[in-house]
Amino acid sequence: MFLCHLHALSFTEYSGMDKAHEPMVAMADLYATIILPEQVVTPLQEPVMNWQEFIMQLAKVIYWSGMLLLATRFFVQLGSIIRLHFQCSKARYKEYAYIY
Which pTM does this prediction carry? Predict the structure, then answer.
């Protein structure tokens, strides 16, 4: 019984508030239509991952990393050979030169 009275009371208060706020609502609508620009918000599209492109990029990174590693190893070994050439003494036996 109490809930029915409370419900009826709140409904009458709400309808009274609605009538009291009508001029304010009309001004807000007028302000929104005249002054505020219309903005359309579109959700951001998530980038679609293309697995073939990703695998190709990964393969390129692995390839060039391997090439860099092997080139570094080659030049280090070449430098070691050149260093040994200048540091070691040479001996000749007939037409052959020996490094010891």
Answer: 0.44
